[in-house]
Amino acid sequence: MIQFHRRLRPVKVISFDLDDTLYDNLPVMQQAEQALLEYLHQQFPQTAAFGLQDWRALRDKLAAADAMLATNMTALRQATLRHGLEQHGLAADLATRGAEDAMLHFLQHRNQVDVADDVHHLLDALAARFPLLAISNGNADISKIGIGEYFTQAWQPSEHLRGKPTTDMFRAAQQKLGFNPAELLHIGDHPVSDVQGAARFGAQTVWLNQSGRFDPRLTWLPTVTIAHLPLLSDFL
User: pLDDT value at position 159?
Assistant: First the structure.
């Protein structure tokens, strides 16, 4: 399914979200969080009764209290780990060090991503015609997950760049590559982070709606809606 909501204007640069756009992120995160939990229980036995739901509840609490932190998945998880370890009796410096070590362990598993062959073929074809950018709130490493060769640059939230739906990372990309906002086509699955964030910057947007269902969070109309990523090749 391809649905055009407005005419697609000339595109000079394409940006992609990563998680749940180029691959299914749910099984990746399930495996990575389970590996992290086992690591925490082994390294910090005092956390043995603190399960996945407890860690997620703590993460959600921190995200609700800090809108900027909520868009930076790396900083949010690290803060969650630090707060959780402090809650279980570690001094602040030990909790910080423990959170950093735990985060490294998590990232090893988090980057065990299987990108489908048809996505590789699509990225390869598009990279021959456009500069491709990765703009993600998450912490997947494009080189470690095997798609780095297709991308000119990748942006993720940092101390100086807020995550989507703010326009910080889109503006950083614009400053680096020198394109007009309307010449960028951003592709992503999230109706707020991707569609709203890119549209606020002035970019054209493709919403990847694999469920085919209406999403009440979609308050900014995308340029195009598609049900499957390979459909991009039908109009690009």
Answer: 87
